Amino acid sequence: MRTDVRFPTNGLQLAGHLHLPEGVDGPFAAIVVGHPTTGVKEQSPALYAAPLVDAGFAVLTFDAAFQGESEGTPRGLEDPFQRAEDFRAAVSYLTTRPEIDSERIGVMGVCGSGAYAPYAAQTDHRMKAVAGVSGTDAPGFLRGGDPEGWARMVAASGDLRSAEAAGEPAATFPVLPEKADADTPAATAEFIDYYKTPRGAHPRSTGDMVVRSVDLLDQFDSFADVAKIAPRPLLMIAGTEAVTRGYSEKAVADSPGTAELFLIEGATHVDLYDRDAYVTAAAAKLTEFFRKHLG
């Protein structure tokens, strides 16, 4: 059973879907699922919610502030500190629901949220089990694609803030081109094949980011203090062919013995968004992980 819900974060209302198992009584162990950078809750979070609900968990998917159906302007702002706060707000909301066992709440995310969730969990001990799927430090990944262009945007961010203060609309840029060509890097092409085609496109997943997001992202390091999650468990799932695999490997390497790396053979980064065989394998591992640590 899916219910549309709203809950507060820093004066904004976030839009979410609360999925509850049918035919059984709570209180349920619950899992918060966050979406990729530039994504929305109706994409990969919905695909992961279904098998987790079938396994008996309550699942809360939600749109980040400034994105999707959630409140916040300018639209398309990617504030990594707010993204982490959104996970904390989602957990707070779940603790108010009578159907949820507030002592058995886990968090997970896909892509950017696969790093924002562990970041939030470093200091929020209500998050009893933490997982990332294709987890990616968004600033590191975006910066690495064009370091010089990134530096120019960081340098311009102060002037863009001044322009907004004077009443001008927030400047945005498309994270992806509309189409791939022979010169498009393979890592970019696979994102285009998902976000810019019927395979994964969603009208609220616009792919536009506020330019001055970069001065926030440039200060952010998702996994710098990942060891603080311990002794709570951390699971990082990545494809063996994923360009972002190194983020999951490093997160686990920098953690104590409570962290686990689970590699899915042959999968790329975006394969874990929606490809049936790979999502099935990831969901099975997530189910095993959360059953073990949430009950």
Describe the structure.
- It comes from Streptomyces parvus.
- With 295 residues, the chain is of the alpha/beta class.
- It has one domain: Alpha/Beta hydrolase fold, catalytic domain (Rossmann fold, 3-Layer(aba) Sandwich).
- The chain is 37% helix and 22% strand.
- Helix 4 crosses helix 5.
- The protein is globular, with a radius of gyration of 18 Å.
- The two termini are 21 Å apart.
List its salient traits.
295 residues, alpha/beta, eight-stranded mixed β-sheet, two-stranded antiparallel sheet, 10 helices, 37% helix, 22% strand, Polyketide_trans_af380, Dienelactn_hydro, Alpha/beta hydrolase, hydrolase
What letter string, H or E per element, gives the SSE order?
EEEHEHEHEHHEHEHEHEHH
CATH architecture verdict: 3-Layer(aba) Sandwich
What percent strand? Answer: 15-25%
What count of structural domains? Answer: 1
Radius of gyration: 18 Å
Approximate helicity band: 25-40%
Task: Identify the CATH class.
Answer: Alpha Beta
Looking at how many chains there are and whether they match, the oligomeric state comes to single chain
The largest β sheet comes out as: 8 strands, mixed
- Round the mean pLDDT to the nearest integer and report it: 96
In short:
It contains ten helices and ten strands. It is of the alpha/beta class and 295 residues long.
Write the layout of secondary structure elements.
Blueprint (H helix, E strand, L loop, with lengths): L1 E8 L2 E8 L8 E7 L9 H11 L3 E5 L17 H16 L4 E11 L2 H9 L5 E7 L4 H8 L1 H19 L6 E3 L11 H10 L12 E3 L2 H5 L16 E6 L5 H9 L5 E6 L6 H4 L1 H19 L1
Parallel strand pairs: 3-4, 3-5, 5-6, 6-9, 9-10
Antiparallel strand pairs: 1-2, 2-4, 7-8
GO molecular function: hydrolase activity
InterPro entries: AB_hydrolase_fold, Dienelactn_hydro, Polyketide_trans_af380
Keywords: Hydrolase
